Amino acid sequence: MKVRILVTLKESVLDPQGQTVRNALHTLGYHQVRDVRQGKVFEIELEGSSREEAEKIVPEIADRVLANPIIEKFTWEILEA
Amino acid sequence: MKVRILVTLKESVLDPQGQTVRNALHTLGYHQVRDVRQGKVFEIELEGSSREEAEKIVPEIADRVLANPIIEKFTWEILEA
Amino acid sequence: MKFGVVVFPGSNCDYDTFHALQNVMGQETVFLWHKDHDLQQVDCVVLPGGFSYGDYLRSGAIARFSPIMQEVKKFAEDGGLVLGICNGFQILLESGLLPGAMLRNKNLKFLCQYVNIRIENDRTAFTGAGRKGQVLRIPIAHFDGNYYAPPELLEELERNNQILFRYCDEKGNLTGEANVNGSLHHIAGIVNRKGNVMGMMPHPERASEKILGSEDGKIIFQSIINYLEKKKGKKSPGRTVSRPISPLPPLIGTF
Amino acid sequence: MIDEKTLADHNLTREEYDLIVRLIGREPNLTELGIFSVMWSEHCGYKSSKVHLKKFPTKGKYVIQGPGENAGVMDIGDGLAVVFKIESHNHPSYIEPYQGAATGVGGILRDIFTMGARPIAVLDSLRFGPLDNPKNRAIMEGVVSGISGYGNSFGVPTVGGEVYFNDCYSQNPLVNVCCVGLAYRDRLFLARASGAGNAVIYAGAKTGRDGIHGATMASAEFGEDIEHKRPNVQVGDPFKEKLLLEACLEAMAKNLIVGIQDMGAAGLTCSTTEMAAKAGTGMEINLDLVPQREEGMTPYEIMLSESQERMLIVAEPEKVEELKKIFNKWDLDAVVIGRVTDDGRLKVYFHGELVIDIPVKAVVDLCPAYRRPARKPAFVNKISRLRKPEMPSDLNQVFLQLLASPNIADKEWVFRQYDHMVQVNTAVLPGADSAVLRLKGLKKALAMTLDGNALYTFLNPRRGGQIAVAEACRNLACAGAAPIGVTNCLNFGNPEKPEIMWQFREAIEGIAEACRQFEIPVTGGNVSFYNETGGRPIYPTPVLGIIGLIDDINKVPSAGFKAAGESIILLGENREEFGGSEYLRLIFSEEKGQPPALSLAKEKKVQECCRQAIRAGLVRTAHDVSEGGLAVALAECAFRSSRRIGFRVKLNDVIRTDALLFGETQSRIILAVRKKDARKVLNLARKMKVPAKVIGETGGKKMEIWHRGKKIIDLKVELGYQAWKNSIPNYFKIKK
Ligand SMILES: Nc1ncnc2c1ncn2[C@@H]1O[C@H](COP(=O)(O)OP(=O)(O)O)[C@@H](O)[C@H]1O
Ligand SMILES: [Mg+2]
Question: Of the residues C13, C44, C71, C86, which is catalytic?
Fold first, then answer.
């Protein structure tokens, strides 16, 4: 099974990377870009896992290892069963 | 309009970050994890853009700025119209 | 000769490089501001180390769009000498002036340490003062110095002798341990096909004075000076530092 | 309106509240209460420590600026001044190691450049729980990469520091960062809002809801409710800070600034009130003009936000345009948000309404100072009693174990992640007793070091404080430097407990005594209280940052042996002391006894002798004896020589062999000199009445130590080196 986990900074947390990308895009003339937030994506291949198992361990992994719950939040989805 | 762009290393490029995450997960006992690839996610807010415009500029931005085509590939989707 | 050191927002080896060129090598040196279009008639452009634009997207990825880089590109196309050190190398890669890309160091940590590099080709504008096989001791300081290029390109670099430096041990052997950042083919520095644009991860400006522990970096600057003198058929005035050397940098960006 | 719960949330007592009401002549509104709460927090108001900090000597011939400004300033001649200060970021680094440590670096950098100095070096003192616990490893990994991430990008070299492990830091790591800056003597800037009518300018990053109440967090003990304190962590932006540095220095050089202060703890609140109070003026600002990152922020949030990379500047109105131009050139915001007044009040407007109106003096200067009760803890007498340990059978084995103890082992895993060479001044890289920075174009140079031994301070706080000063100065002496100024970070538990207060008072008095003896002024520092989690305090941990001046950089010896066949000289004498040693702790699991004795007068002479020998150009290698004792110090000289030269040493002291090898007797320095110079050094020592003898010779591939005719240590250098070198990296190896 393949799952995708997106980890991004919480809304109120400063995102210097996103800001810098936005500024760069403005310089290049992409003025439509109002805001950019940058985060991380993890694509994880799980061996022989059922949907139930994934639903148990993926959020656990995300919370313990992939994201720092103090400043980050995460979402996840199953890509291939 | 809100779009999401995922930038990941090409399959042919080694991903030490992903490997480190996988090893860390194994150490914690998550042996179901067979493989991890790590990448970047950008969530971009576009001002008053139509779907056509997005379809024109998003790949352009991704290709010119967000991803380095030598090592990275990207996918994108519209989150909110 | 006249050197221009480009100042991007976030450059932090700009004054170090300026100091090495002007106060150590005795060359006329100016800063080039990233928002300008004027290269001030320099003979060689140096892109210094640092964290241009914070290196927030990818190292060197945003600097390539700055106004001065449009001029640097033209300058390079016309055969002008361009040297990129560390972040400068990354910028050259991102802007396509040099081939390949940088990945994170293999141990995923920033690395600041002395390394040994072996001169692979001494017949270039950047290495002429050294000799093939010579081992230089020069520090690195980077997070993304793990050179990558697809196989065809690597082969081409090898075939054309474009690899100028490789990480090695103190005797010049290409051991796995010596390749601290994991670069393919141990690559520490390359030159473009035409031979006028060079990028290297180690910092020659940090190895240009005895008091700092090594003077091997001077070989690179001296090579450039020799090459330019030969080309222009005149001698550089040499050590002509008239102003006393100030312990503090001048105001960077006020020009 | 202000009930007990609100007061408790603001860490204010009923008495303090009553005082506030008296000072402002009415009940404060909630925003005003917030202001008093942060300004009167332990972190900003020093209410438990003030009465004791007064004991430090603060005057001296080099001092331009003592305590009370953003940083201390020393005159080093040639029109130059050194600006330096240390700061703790302990609590944030526990909650979010990377950002906590990173913003700690950011904060101390601003303290330095706000005074007109360019930061030229950072040093960091780190303390964690033992590395066999993965949680401690994760904290250490995060902290080190946070310091590296911020400092490297900003472009300041991190040239030295210390790392120490003890279980008492498992729930409360310490992250102390010291920054050293260089300025022109006649171009220093102070945090003064002088001149009624002058403009108040906000420069740098936009304000968000970051770290609101960070200062009060640093002033309270962690309990089980740590979760809800989490949002206080801020994210640093080193790139912006670098731009801010260049813009500020440029505006200063062009004489566009009257006064300037960084927005650190307590943000706008602290900078506005302090700048006005120090100048005896007032200030009026309009919060609608403050650049904001988030929508709908309240005056409370804007005033107390601890968003990073911001400065408050006071400038003459006619210079505002030029000032703005400079900041814009560096892609930064700079906007006028108010003006200086002469009524001594801070008046803050928001949406056209006056929301704060308080006397700045009350906020800044009238914070209560407590002489809190102090009582010697009952355990002190108990732990100071020590039965002599049993003599181990295999001293080689003990030696190897000590070399691999993370407290003694090589710290390269840490400092390799720091750019320690940027700015091309670092002449002695991390790995020696002190870092040495050349000053371009000059013969003189700066040496700097951070030191502290918490175990000693735990066993005997007064002596621990003295030893910290002595050891730091000894580290400088090994580079040939004379100490000129001190900054210090005092990390302690909850000061409301009399036992903690006793440790604090004793340690301060010890430090003060030693500083007086060495004739070095304390020009600033930081107090971090409430380093407790679940009621368990850390060991009292004073960290001393001392700057030294070197006359001639070309004479600085190296920390490692330079060649074979040189004489090894020991300055000082060996005594039988076990207390507080790493040997006892590691081999016998005992944190007990009295720390080694210290005679400040003797110590001073030993250091002076070392310095003079170096100045005379006689010394090739110098290294002081500290944790791990004589054997470890000798081994370090071997490991730090590029060719890993061994040694053979013969000793005849009539003391126990293990004490001779591993005891931590103070006031000892190892020198290696050319054979022909040995006599000269011994003569110099005799003249200065410093005990000194040749104890052996460098060379070979082995470490050999003989005691009264018997070979007691016999170990291949390479074997010891591998143990020392790999110990810390091995903990972090990823298991495949
Ligand atoms: N956190 C750190 N950051 C930078 N350098 C460090 C750090 N910890 C230790 N070092 C360096 O490692 C060397 C050994 O440290 P330490 O054993 O504490 O020295 P000493 O006992 O002489 O004070 C010193 O050069 C020190 O500066
Ligand atoms: Mg020492």
Answer: C86
Contacts of D730 (CB under 8 A, 6+ apart): none
With b for 16 or more beta-carbon neighbours within 10 A and e for fewer, the A33-57 pattern comes to beebbbbbbbbbbbeebeeeebeeb
Phi, psi (rounded to 5 degrees) for D162: -150, 155
Provide the 8-state DSSP code for C72.
H
Minimal CA–CA distance to A44: which of A7, A68, A79?
A79
| Residues belonging to chain C with any Cβ–Cβ distance to chain D shorter than 8 Å | 9-10, 12-13, 15-16, 19-20, 23, 49-51, 53-56, 109-113, 139, 141, 143, 203, 205-206, 208-209, 211-213, 244-249, 251-254
* Exposure b/e, B3-36, CB count within 10 A at least 16 = b: bbbbbbbeeebebbbbbebbebbeeeebebbeeb
Give the tens place of pLDDT for each residue, D616-660: 999 999 999 999 999 999 999 999 999 999 999 999 999 999 999
Structure tokens at D538: 């850390």
The per-residue pLDDT for D225 is: 47
Instruction: Say if the Cβ atoms of B20 and D735 lie within 8 Å.
Output: no
Question: Closest ligand 1 atom, CA of D412?
Answer: 12
DSSP reduced 3-state for D64: strand
**CB-side neighbour CA atoms (13 Å) of C215:** 6
How far, in Å, is the centroid of ligand 1 from the Cα of D479? 14
What is the rounded average pLDDT of the residues D326-345? 95
The residue annotated as part of the active site, out of D89, D213, D420, D623, is D89
Chain C residue numbers touching B65 (CB-CB < 8 A): 57, 61-62
Q: What are the backbone angles phi and psi of residue D609, rounded to the nearest 5°?
A: -65, -45
Give the SS3 label for residue D259: strand
Residue D4's pLDDT is 87
Is residue D151 lining ligand 1, measured as CB closer than 6 Å? Answer: no
CA of B16 from ligand 1 middle (Å) equals 30
> What would the 3-class secondary structure string for C21-61 be?
HHHHCCCEEEEEECCCCCCCCCCEEEECCECHHHHCCCCCC
Measured CA to CA, the distance from residue D580 to residue D663 in angstroms comes to 9
Instruction: Give the Å distance between the CA of D177 and the centre of ligand 1.
Output: 13
* Burial group, residue C161, by CB count within 10 angstroms (0-12, 13-18, 19+): middle
Q: For the residues C76-85, what does the mean pLDDT come to?
A: 98
| Six token digits for residue D243 | 């731009």
Atom of ligand 1 nearest to the CA of D420: 4
Distance in Å, alpha carbon of A78 to nearest chain C alpha carbon: 27
Please report which helix (H) or strand (E) contains residue D22, including its range. Answer: helix D14-24
What CATH class is the domain C2-231?
alpha beta
Question: Which is nearest to D486 in space by CA: D77, D87, D112, D57?
Answer: D57
- Domains annotated for chain A, with CATH where assigned, are 2-80 (3.30.1280.10)
What string of DSSP letters covers D587-610?
HH----SPPPP--HHHHHHHHHHH
Which amino acid is it at A66?
L
Torsion sign, CA atoms C149, C155, C159, C163: positive
**Amino acid residing at C139:** P
- pLDDT tens for each residue of D297-321: 999 999 999 999 999 999 999 999 9
Residue identified by tokens 């989150």 is B79
Burial class of residue C2 in the structure, from the number of CB atoms within 10 Å of its CB (0-12 exposed, 13-18 middle, 19+ buried)? middle
Which residue did the predictor score with more confidence, C255 or D22?
A: D22
- Of the pLDDT bands very low, low, confident and very high (cuts 50, 70, 90), residue D224 is very low
Question: pTM, whole model, 2 decimals?
Answer: 0.95
D197 burial via Cβ count (<10 Å: 0-12, 13-18, 19+): exposed
Ligand nearest to the CA of residue D447, numbered in listed order: 1
D92: tokens are 């944030």
